[in-house]
Every structure is written in structure tokens, then in C-alpha cells.
Amino acid sequence: MTYTALLSLAILRDDFLRLDRVGLLDFIRSCQRTDGSFSTVPGSNEMDLRSLYCAFAISAMLNDWSAVNTDRAITYIASCRTYEGGYGQAPFCEAQGGTTYTAIASLFLVPRDSATSPLTSAERELTIQWLLSNFHASGGFSGRTGKDADACYCFWCGATLQILGAGDLVDKRALAKFMVECQFKYGGIAKAPGENPDPYHTYLSLAALSIYSPASVMNPDNINTASWILDPLDPLLNARQDTAQWARRYIPATSQGRDA
Ligand SMILES: [Zn+2]
């Protein structure tokens, strides 16, 4: 909730003058558990990689990592990695596209020397291969091995490939055609063709299209390309680039960058 609230305020171009940054850092600190994972609220046993990602995204927006034990958190992320190259929501869970996104995005949100990578080249390669193995001829991604394609995974898997520098391996035209087929005749986008639309799948489909804009590669057979041109997305924060820049500029405690 805190992560989405901060981004929602950034979308509204709030100046964040009333943001209780000290309280925010205390809250994040109190959510981290001894194994490095994060609970949804302090003291709760309810935890998975989504909470960890939110804590990392908030730290990135604050440009302040003092509330996070990153070494422990990164060790926890590694413990969620599976033999397939994806990540489960907790140790020993099946690899899933959504939690793989939260794991990889978290690893790449941590400030680091530009010459270093949070994954070995073998790990990166295996993760890319697993994500691509979930890409279907229909243009959609499935979230787990052997499952049907689902529009939301076009973002979860597609954004992860983009973060890993493998976005050029995604067939943008096929992905956009899948989205067209998932589009409901009265508006909105469903998880699969013929299903009912909902805001979750509609948003994530548009987010995927923002990363994989079909405009430059698509010959408009039956697709109105003009309506699919969307502003580029920051795949790490899952927000439009201009919103992510606003957040990174105005949420940090110092006035650094505000006059840039
Ligand atoms: Zn879905």
C-alpha cells in the first residue's frame, strides 16, 4: 500500500513536503525479519517477495537504504530461486512470473557499481531462458511452466526480460496481437481471449505495451497502431518514466536534484 501510495502521489505530481520520511524508514525497518524477508506489517508472519520488493522500491524512491539490511535481503531472494531460473514467492516454492519480477527488479534496484551485476552470467542466462520458455506462439506469456498464457504475465515476464537486457528477444508484434485478442469488445483487457476484463489485467497489459511498443515494428494488418503508442515505462518501479523520475526527484529527503 505504501509503495502504491507514493507512486500515486507521484502520478498526481505531489511535492511530498508532508511526507514523514523518518516514520517511513522506521516502518520499513520494522517490517524486515531476521531471515532478510519482509512482512506486510511489522510482526506479521505474512511475507513473500512482494513485500520485499515494495520495501526496496520505497528505499529507491527515498534514495535511502539505511532501513534495509540489503545483504540479508539479497540472501533471502537467492533462497527463493529455483532450478528453473525463476523465483518462488518463498523458499522451496514453484517459480512464478510475478515473483520472478519482484526478485529481479529488487536486485537491480539496489545501488551498485555499474561494472557489477547482481546475477552471474549463468544465472542471468538461465532466467532469460525460463522466461522465454513461457512465451507462447499466441504472443502471451504464462506465469508458470506448462500453464496457459495470461495477459498480466506480459508485464511480469516482459518487464523482467527488459531489466535483464533481453527485451529485444520479445516479439513485440505477437505480444500486441495477443493484447488485441484479450481486449473486451466493450472496453478493458482480460487475462485471456474470451474472458471478462478487469482493472488489474488492463493496467498490466498497458504497462507491457509501454515497454514493448509495437508502433515501430508493426504493419497494421488488423491493428490500429496509433492507439497502441504509449509513453515509455520504468520497468524497475512499474511506473511511467516521467512519474518514476518525479518520484526519484521529489521523494528523497534532501532537496538534491530539485533545481536540476
Ligand atoms: Zn493474470
Automatic annotation (TrEMBL):
Cofactor names: Zn(2+)
Domain of life: Eukaryota
Protein name: Prenyltransferase alpha-alpha toroid domain-containing protein
Database matches in SUPFAM superfamilies: Terpenoid cyclases/Protein prenyltransferases
KW Zinc (keyword) present: yes
KW Transferase (keyword) present: yes
GO annotation, cellular component aspect: CAAX-protein geranylgeranyltransferase complex
Keywords recorded for this protein, A-Z: Metal-binding, Prenyltransferase, Repeat, Transferase, Zinc
Family: Belongs to the protein prenyltransferase subunit beta family.
Molecular functions per Gene Ontology: CAAX-protein geranylgeranyltransferase activity; metal ion binding
A Pfam family hit: Prenyltrans
InterPro entries for the chain: PGGT1B-like, Prenyltrans, Terpenoid_cyclase/PrenylTrfase
Residue ranges occupied by any Prenyltransferase alpha-alpha toroid domain in the UniProt entry: 1-238
